[in-house]
Amino acid sequence: MSAAPGTLTAEAIAALEARHEAPLYHKRDLAVVRGEGARVWDAAGRCYIDCIGGHGVAVVGHCHPKVVAAIREQAGRLLTCPGALGNDARAAYLARLAQVTPPGLDRFFLCNSGTEAVEAAIKFARASTGRPGVVAARRGFHGRTLGALSATWKEQYKKPFQPLVSGFTHVPFNDLPALAEAVTADTAAVLLEPVQGEGGVYPATPAYLQGAAQLARARGALLILDEVQTGFGRTGHLFAAEHYGVVPDLLCLAKGIAGGLPMGAVALGPRVAGLSPGMHASTFGGNPLACAAAGAALDVLLDEGLPERAARLGAAFQDRLRELALPAVREVRGLGLMIGIELRFRAAPYLAALQQAGVLALAAGPQVIRLLPPLVITEEELAQVAAALGRVLAGKEVAADAAGA
Ligand SMILES: *Cc1c(COP(=O)(O)O)cnc(C)c1O
């Protein structure tokens, strides 16, 4: 028996997923069935302000009409086209993307997710330099496939899957002397997030990121920036690297790239060499549907001035939170509309309390609330988020049961 989507209750959804989905997610008590802009609706019709945003995917908002129209149009023409064959939607998107990526990064490998983008960048750095080593940062997150996972810091994510890929070392973030010590003649790449997302929302200092770029160049290694989460306007520039005046050799993109459709990309700078046909590929990479959606999403980002909007609204929102001087809050940090609120307590019960209050937020480590709202979120919606945070975080520690967790 199969039930049509749209007819299932929250209970039915939870039961079917609990029965048939591999048990890999910490499930929340919520099933979302529709979205528009910065809002989503649950199966019972209740509306939430969505500061999870598909883990930062929904930069242009849920179901942006221009993205939906581009998908509908392309879906009626051609859905799949292998990399060995040319395609109009792909060619047009590549040219469009090359206009907005940092100077010199005008060639791309298209794939389907963030981890694939990181995986490809690691392979390209090894092929380009003939060296094995990758230096990444503590607290860094780069994805779940074995190569990207080897670059990821969190032991809990890695432990069940040993042995991982060899050649990876981790250094403290924002510590240039430690990086200088770790980068050797065996280093293919330094791999960093400009703002660590999953690890707790920690922006790199300008001196660190600029120093890392210089160091990599001086020692014959490549700089890979993982902008899977920070890319496409999230931090207040189209790419976070622009805040720092840093141009990486390889730039990893995904999440917000295609307005909600699965897609990833690696942008290649002039120092990347040694690639040849057959070395790497992806069946779905550069498919016409994703490319059409990505082109429309990029137009929306630029036409609606969303990076500038993220800068303006994000700064004002951070100021507002600091003004509230909430007793449960240790620090507010972030860049643009990538915001971390470090608590004195565990974040989970507060996330549940926020959900009760109609605001969806996510964690970044045990004590940090992370907000990744769509960049189209209205000022009024953000004021509602601030008010909900003010109420929920005003008290001392929220008991898990009181918060409905
Ligand atoms: C989400 C994320 C990834 C992994 O992306 P997936 O699409 O889940 O594979 C990699 N790097 C960073 C910085 C991310 O935020």
Key terms for this structure?
405 residues; Aspartate Aminotransferase, domain 2; four-stranded mixed β-sheet; 36% helix; globular; binds pyridoxal-5'-phosphate
Question: In words, what does this structure look like?
Answer:
- It is a single chain.
- The protein is an alpha/beta fold.
- The chain has a domain at 77-273 and 280-303: Type I PLP-dependent aspartate aminotransferase-like (Major domain) (Aspartate Aminotransferase, domain 2, 3-Layer(aba) Sandwich), CATH 3.40.640.
- Helices cover 36% and strands 18% of the residues.
- It has 14 helices and 17 strands.
- It has helices at 10-20, 53-56, 65-75, 88-98, 114-129, 146-151, 155-158, 176-182, 206-218, 241-244, 288-303, 306-324, 348-356, 379-392; strands at 32-36, 39-42, 47-50, 107-111, 133-137, 168-171, 187-192, 195-196, 202-203, 222-226, 250-253, 264-268, 329-335, 338-343, 359-360, 362-363, 368-371.
- It has a seven-stranded mixed beta sheet with strand order 4-12-11-10-7-5-6, sandwiched between helices. The protein has a four-stranded mixed beta sheet with strand order 1-2-3-15.
- Strand 8 and strand 9 form a beta hairpin.
- The longest helix is centred in the last third of the chain and has 19 residues, at 306-324.
- Residues 113-115, 118, 141-143, 193, 197-198, 226, 228-229, 254-255 line the site of pyridoxal-5'-phosphate (PLP).
